[in-house]
Amino acid sequence: MSTMTPAEIVSELDKFIIGQQKAKKAVAVALRNRWRRQQVAEPLRQEITPKNIMMIGPTGVGKTEIARRLAKLADAPFIKIEATKFTEVGYVGRDVDSIVRDLVEISLKQTRETEMRKVRTQAQDQAEDRILDILLPSARPVGFGSQASSSESAEGSATRQTFRKRLREGQLDDKEIELDVELPQLGMDIMGPPGMEDMTEQIRSMFANLGGGKKTRRKMKVKEALKVLTDEEASKMLNDEEVKSKAVQNVEQNGIVFLDEIDKIASRSGELGGGGGEVSRQGVQRDLLPLVEGTTINTRYGMVKTDHILFIASGAFHLSKPSDLIPELQGRFPIRVELDSLSVQDFESILVATDASLVKQYQALLATESVELEFADDGIRRMAEIAYSVNERTENIGARRLYTVIEKLLEDVSFAAGNHAGKVVRIDAAYVDQALGDIAQSEDLSRYVL
Ligand SMILES: Nc1ncnc2c1ncn2[C@@H]1O[C@H](COP(=O)(O)OP(=O)(O)OP(=O)(O)O)[C@@H](O)[C@H]1O
């Protein structure tokens, strides 16, 4: 569990998200409250439920990004779900409980990776041993029941030492060897009939147990073999039951569910009740309520209590208001934060100032082909202005517009990077105007191209 203070959390989020201080503060407090709750003694601890958050703001201004980065900081299992998914016409089958089931799957993968990292060094040693056994069948270390004489074994172990050194130095990387590797587990998903999720889960777990543990002989280079065998050895060292129970616990104590488009399942202001859509939207709210209030869901890995999962709902609320949600659900999202629309200046910062900004990404990509991209300040400004004005004139998709703008701008350089190798490509306002000016001027063109 993260022990960061709210100020530390906000400063971490600042590295990736421009502005939106109110939302950052709200999620930072929510995360800190989880830690605080853990410090409270039982039975009071059980009584403290998360203060779920509702983020209100237009599309593409960083709502999902804030939640996702928060989850990453806290190493928390995270899932994003569109609430409208459950209202789609003809949508039968997967119920809202599947949100929790999917979250547990995500948590399992995450927990497994964390646990694998812990045993990695030990697993690497074992993998090396297995490769040395293949490379030097006669120099196997003297083990239980071995008949080798002591002089033979001394000689063998010296050779083994030499080979181990060469292996570690990468000298044997390209040598081909043949080895037995475990077949991966069957990766199929089983769709069950609607309303029979529990039975489907049982069938899935029956199949999940098939196929594992079988071996097949494969040829590969030592370098790849080391990787495959390290994974195999690491996974042998893990206790599956322990991993499962940790994964479930992680969901219960740390899980974050991001419910997007919550506004679209609210009643539309002004719409007279009784329509089919209305019924279905209210139905989804009623279905979601127990999850948010706290219930127990049966999953493949055991029962999961949702009481302490943090829910972050998000929506633009253009056509409806939070007060159009059913009262019980409103009460479960007591923290409301509004996110601001992004300005030209924000766009400029998003392009250059974040840790993994778009500009840095493109510079790194093209540097691999010895092309140096240099962005002048006026070039950045012009890109931001174009993105902003296209958003205003066509559809406002927020910072997502920057992706299409920069992609189009660098289309030619990206395509012919080979011709620019060793050169500096300077992107200034004139360059941007020349590449994008015509498109940005024409509403029709920008609709299709940007
Ligand atoms: N304030 C911001 N700072 C940095 N990057 C941002 C910001 N706002 C948006 N972005 C970038 O734009 C993209 C879209 O943002 P995000 O997914 O957070 O949108 P959203 O507000 O959740 O909208 P929607 O509700 O439509 O999903 C992301 O890749 C994100 O990195």
From TrEMBL:
UniProt biased composition (Low complexity): 145-158
Binding-site residues for ATP, renumbered to this chain: I18, G60, V61, G62, K63, T64, E65, D260, E328, R400
Any one GO molecular function term: ATP binding
Region (Disordered): 143-169
AAA+ ATPase domain span: 49-339
Keyword match Protease: yes
The UniProt record lists the keyword Protease: yes
Annotated compartments: Cytoplasm
SUPFAM superfamilies in UniProt: P-loop containing nucleoside triphosphate hydrolases
Domain Clp ATPase C-terminal as annotated: residue spans: 342-436
Listed GO biological process terms: protein unfolding
Keywords assigned: ATP-binding, Chaperone, Cytoplasm, Hydrolase, Nucleotide-binding, Protease
GO cellular component, one term: HslUV protease complex
Subunit: A double ring-shaped homohexamer of HslV is capped on each side by a ring-shaped HslU homohexamer. The assembly of the HslU/HslV complex is dependent on binding of ATP.
Record's function text: ATPase subunit of a proteasome-like degradation complex; this subunit has chaperone activity. The binding of ATP and its subsequent hydrolysis by HslU are essential for unfolding of protein substrates subsequently hydrolyzed by HslV. HslU recognizes the N-terminal part of its protein substrates and unfolds these before they are guided to HslV for hydrolysis.
PANTHER family: ATP-DEPENDENT CLP PROTEASE ATP-BINDING SUBUNIT CLPX-LIKE, MITOCHONDRIAL-RELATED, ATP-DEPENDENT PROTEASE ATPASE SUBUNIT HSLU
Family: Belongs to the ClpX chaperone family. HslU subfamily.
Protein name: ATP-dependent protease ATPase subunit HslU
Annotated source species: Trinickia symbiotica
Organism placement in taxonomy: Bacteria, Pseudomonadati, Pseudomonadota, Betaproteobacteria, Burkholderiales
